[in-house]
């Protein structure tokens, strides 16, 4: 360290280094002892804008205990701190409506604005200052009233722990009110104790660190396994590592399961409409994918109509997509499919033709390119459970949405008159008609229901993948696989099949790669169909013979 | 083989006669008639016709299993593409050191991937007889294994259609992977010559056209012979009442298996003839969409007639070439509309229309 100081500050470097060390120590003493004048002096040193004076200035500001200190240091760290050329005072600049708005960092008050950055000179920092700033800010964070800020301060300190930081943590911990922050502090202190000369203390801290997942902790313990002179400590370190590794594996398992379930939810959403049209009615609807696509495009159009309310647009898109796809579905059923009942292979061809027409229609009317669909804010972000496991919001929403759609559909099929009639017609059309069920109307409504659900799935998919004319094609085969695997005519089968295929896919992925995993799943289904031609949950009774 | 199989096949006789005339005329009009004469047939047209003929052979193969055996295969494109890849591998190794990287042993894409030796499954493809054997064996074996598993466990109807689709989809994904050693995304291309003949020359193009015509005629006669034989009659019985045929004592699985395998081999041969004429084979040929298109050719031409399949393949592909040239946007509308209209109003296809006229007359 002195080398650079010497080269710049000449013979004064030595005492400066000593002063910095001393000031850092002062920084560790609770703020009650701080001198408010230090803040002004430190700021003045920073305003000199030389690396050597900056170090001193940062230390003084950090130790001052002034309420503005943290903001000043953050601005310096984020390269937002400038000198105004006209009067050489410190300002914090932020881009405003025209030019830059300035803040006085000493008071936090606005300090006018400038038209361009030419009137300002940035206070430059180097790597060493950066690390000094990091620990100084972390130290200040520890006394911040917000527990979240304190926690991030401790986490920051764990990542680059030094003796001073450790002393500060020791001083703070007994007074820390928040349990979570206290736990992080305990971890940090135990991590510091790993360097203690006393083997007993090292073993005790290893016991403390057993379940900690912070990456810095893992590194330190692993170092101990190889280098510690005491065999008992080495053993304890090995045990601690093992328990940490086990925990990590558990969490990565949980993460894969979560990814699998979210992929499975997408599959179930895409397939569940098909479970109605194909599973219950026996219609092979190759245009199913395009009905999904229509749902996704409906989301796009709804967002175009209300660009200021993206958050609400998705919620409005759900019923809108249901109506659009449902209406198109009824149109398809009345126009084409009803003439083809009992000829499943012909239905396949006709609906395939419809799918081509729908694709081209979207290409001609909207655009052959993908269209942008915005994600609402409430779907972004993540739920950070601990340092290795975080569940992203959009995946959680998809899983929840899938379950809601499934439950709704299940209730419709089980608890409503329409559901009863649909099941009756699918089991024995002639008998149902004899009982007074208007089978033609039931067919149209069932097909509309299945198509509408496809549209709803499209809303969900629009949040996950690109929305383009080919969106449907990529899901049609997967959807058929899920329905066939689950057992035709069985909603539960579709749910179980979709979820398990999603999970299996995600578990295979790290081992085989995404494409190969998909191929393996396809091959698995082909082989599975050989063994159980009617799927996981075959229909029983006479309906199975049809 | 005696031609008595054609005795009752008037459509087939007309088709074969037309094919013979075309095969004789086109080379003369291409090679002997000067280029500025209105009767001249350009080499581009010859290649286009050759391509259509391979499609027609593929359609005949699909008609054999769909029209006569009741198996709607949505995966016949896979057998076609496999035959094409086998031929493509031979053509690839014929390039030798004329590739971009000039490596005499490795195709360009392998040099590009930093591979140092030929993968084991490429060995032998430098010999034409081996490649020709593979054109038959690879699709045949796949169809045999797939059919053996599937027919034995009595997967039928829609389920069968869907897993054939899964088969070709899985193969498409696999061939898209660079690690598979088949050129990944780009497939195999930049072919130079076949059996020493330059692929760009008019004479080779004519040769390939004639070969395609002969293969189509041979395939047609073989299928006609097959469906007129006792085996063919059992096949129709299976199509119409599978369980009943089984109860009577026929070994339904065996019949299905052999006819399915035979059909896959025909598709493979069609693919092998297709590749040198279009000059490229890539994983897109495996896409489920392609396989469905084949089924549509058959449906439009009229199934269970064989010549209807040829007619459908030629008409739809001509329409495709024409429409995608004139108004590209309209092609999918036309094709999609055609599917719907044909299935609704022409369940027997165009061949059915002609037959109905015959009956009236």
From TrEMBL, chain A:
Coiled coil: none annotated. It comes from the Bacteria. GO terms for cellular component: plasma membrane. It is found in: Cell inner membrane. NCBIfam families: urea_trans_UrtB. Belongs to the binding-protein-dependent transport system permease family. LivHM subfamily. It is a multi-pass membrane protein. It comes from Imhoffiella purpurea. GO terms for biological process: amino acid transport. This is Urea ABC transporter, permease protein UrtB. The chain crosses the membrane at residues 257-284, 312-332, 344-362, 396-413, 480-504, 510-529. One of its GO terms (molecular function) is transmembrane transporter activity. InterPro entries: ABC_transp_permease, ABC_UrtB_bac, ARM-type_fold, BCAA_transport_permease. Keywords: Amino-acid transport, Cell membrane, Membrane, Transmembrane, Transmembrane helix, Transport. SUPFAM superfamilies: ARM repeat.
TrEMBL record, chain B:
GO terms for cellular component: plasma membrane. InterPro entries: ABC_transp_permease, ABC_transptr_urea_perm_UrtC, LivM-like. Keywords: Cell membrane, Membrane, Transmembrane, Transmembrane helix. The chain crosses the membrane at residues 12-32, 78-96, 127-151, 158-176, 206-227, 255-274, 294-318, 330-350. Pfam families: BPD_transp_2. It is a multi-pass membrane protein. Its main location: membrane. One of its GO terms (molecular function) is branched-chain amino acid transmembrane transporter activity. It is found in: Cell inner membrane. This is Urea ABC transporter, permease protein UrtC.
